[in-house]
Amino acid sequence: MMAPTYQLAEKARAIIKERGQKVDVFVASNGRREIVECAQALARKGAKVIISRKGTQQIVEETTDLKVVGLNNSLTDYLRMLKDRGLHTPGLIAFFTYDPLSDEVMQMCQMLDIQAKNYIFKTLEDCWDCVRVAMADGAVVGIGGAWTELTSRGLGFPHITVENSEETIANALVVAEQISRIQHEEAEKQRAIKTRMETYQAVLDFTHDAIMSIDDQCRVQVLNPVAERIMGCRAADAIGKPVEKVLPNTMLPDVLRSGIKQTNQMMEIGKVLTNTNRIPIVVEGQIRGVVATFQDIKQLQTTEQKIRLKLHEKGLVAKYAFDDIVGDSRAIRNTIQIARSYASSQAAVLIHGETGTGKELFAQSIHNASARRDGPFVAINCAAVSNNLLESELFGYEAGAFTGASKNGREGLFELAHGGTIFLDEIGEIPRETQVELLRVLQEKEVRRVGGNRVIPVDVRIITATNKDLIQETMEGRFREDLYYRLNVLDLELPPLRERGDDVRLLGLEYFRRLCGGKTTAEQEKRYLDMLAQVRDYAWYGNIRELQNFTERVHILLENGNEVSSGVMTEIMRRRSVGAPQPRRVPAEETDNRERSAIEAALRNCPDSMEDAARSLGCSRQTLWRKMKKYGITRP
Questions:
Q1: pTM recorded for the entire structure
Q2: Strand 461-466 and strand 421-425: pairing?
Q3: How many Cβ atoms sit within 10 Å of the Cβ of residue 203?
Q4: Segment 65-80, tens digit of pLDDT
Q5: Buried residues in 160-170 as b, exposed as e (16+ CB within 10 A)
Q6: Residue 268 — left, alpha, or beta (φ > 0 → left; ψ -120 to 50 → alpha)?
Q7: Which strand (E) or helix (H) includes residue 448?
Q8: Lesser CB count within 10 Å: N end or C end of the chain?
Q9: Residues 528-567: tens digit of each pLDDT
């Protein structure tokens, strides 16, 4: 509050204290200059609302941006003043006011038979003229404010200063408080709007996508820095112009007319090939514009390469493809052909093969030939992880799930493989309790971390491998039958090395060349092949892995100038083959008989529902019908 008198200031302070408000009161009574200096000082200190009398209000509003609440004299103020001075004063009474006196006051004077005249001033200088005119008119007393009181005293003219009532001051305080609250709320709204706009601007400026928008008149409204770069123009030159002048052959006007969005469209802008989305902006059912995003396809490819590099660093990529499989035997060519056909499917694959036959090599090749090639490839050897840890490795765990667990928890391999392939080697080694959880993941397409209660959806293709006879395992109760049929949708049998004929020579020579750094002489290769010929009848029970070990041993011997006689080579192979377990191969006929028996048992147990019979076998109705046709089984 800026008061023109000390009396008003003290009165206002008492009212403010009684109301418990926080309002500072200042006195500015020495003319315009003091009022301006006081108001500007208060504005610099953060004042937003000023309460003052009429003359002060005008000056403050002219010289600052402050909101001013006027202390306007009311009819009650004048009545109280006249009562205190005696209701009837003979002669003319001069009312000095900044604005014309209200009709109510003039009508009151008429009713009380008081001769009154209103004299109006705007500046302190005007007050001298007003008082002189009133004196010339024969006025006996003047009624006004602080300014006219000062002037009247100087001219020796009787003057009564109208004091604002407590009610007037209280009303002004209420109005000022309301204005202050509205200002605060509006400031909060403006801050929220500014924050939102700054957020939008940050998104526009720092997104990797080019963004352009047009209004309902096809004029450019937004053009972010990436769009400027791709289109080769400045936003300042483009905004407000028709879009076709900025981007020729654009489809944005078509989307504006039709209201139909266009996504994943190819568009060439200059020499940049982009992937484009065009989305209509609909407000209250009306199309108000269109926003378009453009992605530089070359940049997308670069980003994809970086992501793949990161995955490679984490070991979540498949390094091998079918072209990396060495061999020309009929057995391996047929196996590769079958595996290639499996790559086009999303179904689970179960790879059978002896130790060292290249099960993971085929799993990686299937992944890299599939539609999931750009997703992660996650592999785990189930036999290499203890039963206690296997479940947390596969499905992850929440914080504090068990002693020693990370305080932040950890995602499992199924989550890491989302969008790609998971390869479970030695699947026959997982315990029964983990088999139950694995079956649930395959059925529900979601995982639940150890110690957690939320489910996490996953999109994963599963490839498993084993050197065990899983049918025998199911019959003996060590492997769940329903899980077996879930995993064995597509079956791939890898031939052992002893059935691949001359592939032994091709593979051995390939590994020998790698050990030599890719630089071998004809003499070196001849010596290696001579040694390999000495063990041509060996069964290679360890398959390709054993051939690799043999080749490395021979390479070391030859590199150090050692001569290895035929007898020594034979002894090496004899020692390695003594006690070597002969791999048990389940005849195809025996496997078929077991599968046929399982199907017949399921049909007997569920005679009224093919759906239930298929579910008990862990396969679909279509798979069950196909296998029934294969074995000539009819429904009971």
A1: 0.48
A2: parallel
A3: 12
A4: 889 998 877 777 777 7
A5: bbbbbbeebbb
A6: beta
A7: strand 446-448
A8: C
A9: 888 888 887 788 888 998 888 888 888 887 777 666 554 4
